[in-house]
Amino acid sequence: MRKTLIALAVAAIAAPAFAADLKVAVDPTYEPFTYKTPQGEVTGFDVDIAKAVCQQIKRKCVFVEQVWDSMIPGLQAKKYDVIVSSMSMTDERRRVVDFSDRYYKTPSAVVLKKSVEYKGPASTKGLKIGVLKGSTQEKWALGELKPAGATIVPYEAQDQVYLDVKSGRLDGTVADKVEVNGGFLRKPEGADYGYKGPDQYETKYYGDGIGIAMRKNQGDLKKQINEAIKTIRSNGTYATIAKKYFEFDPYGN
Predict the structure, then answer these.
(1) Does pTM surpass 0.90?
(2) Which of 40, 63, 39, 35 is nearest to 183 (CA)?
(3) H or E element: which one contains 5?
(4) DSSP, res 26
(5) Which residues contact 245 (CB under 8 A, 6 or more apart)?
(6) What is the sign of the dihedral through the CA atoms of 177, 183, 184 and 187?
(7) What is the CA radius of gyration of the chain?
(8) What is the dihedral of CA 140, 141, 146, 147, to 10 degrees?
(9) How far is CA 83 from the centre of its chain?
(10) Using the 8-state DSSP alphabet, how is residue 181 labeled?
């Protein structure tokens, strides 16, 4: 018995310590970045990236579903450790959270009925435009479309926007160009709608790409995550994940 206890103690010392689970916040209403399968499992590009990062830093991802507008307050309240849910790295957000290096960058766009002639924000006068509450697209719409006479209607989830566009309660939306294609335009209900105007990249609204958000003063975690992003970009993992969802490299320029 004594030998057994000694052997177990030696084994415990020799065995590598497992890091704590990494709690990852996602808003699963943002296909193809974060959404649910018919079985209720959280999936998507962001989810796969998070899993790949967790594998590199040797921690298990535990996904926590969170309404978008409460993402940062939830992070600050320590409900989870990081946000991997298509969060743009803006100056406003950087004042309250820290970010990893970029892991993708795609433009946003106005989406209206194909029959609508669009020549800029003035073309939306009198229209109702749905946006995700607390998003960079909401900020752009409030800054560019509302002054032109559009009514901007915020929603807790992007898929709710599409339901109201489909029902006729909204005239359109401003959304990530890739997300709105996967979540709406490629589906039967989006057949009569399309992109309007140029791609939107304005830094004052959209920041400089999408990163993994974390609380301030977590230098070790940030370093580990940045190294993980660099590794999955170089070893082919990132490209393999991207090909599941896109026909292009979403990393951007």
Answers:
(1) no
(2) 35
(3) helix 2-14
(4) E
(5) 32, 33, 44, 45, 182
(6) positive
(7) 21
(8) 30
(9) 8
(10) I
Cis omega (within 30 of 0) on the bond before 32?
Answer: yes
User: Could you tell me the CA-to-CA distances from 79 to 27, 149, 215 in Å, in that order?
Assistant: 14, 39, 11
Task: Give the DSSP letter string of 89-144.
Answer: --HHHHTTSEEEEEEE---EEEEEETTS--SSGGGGTT-EEEEETTSHHHHHIIII
What are 110-120's pLDDT values in tens digits?
A: 999 999 999 99
Q: Catalogue the long-range contacts made by 218-223 (C-beta closer than 8 Å, 24 or more residues apart).
A: 218/98, 221/81, 221/82, 222/98, 222/100
HSE toward the beta carbon, residue 17, CA cutoff 13 A: 3
Report how far apart, in Å, the C-alpha atoms of 242 and of each of 34, 109, 140, 188 are. 13, 21, 27, 24
pLDDT per residue as tens digits for the range 52-104: 999 999 999 999 999 999 999 999 999 999 999 999 999 999 999 999 999 99
- Here the tokens at position 93 are 């957000």
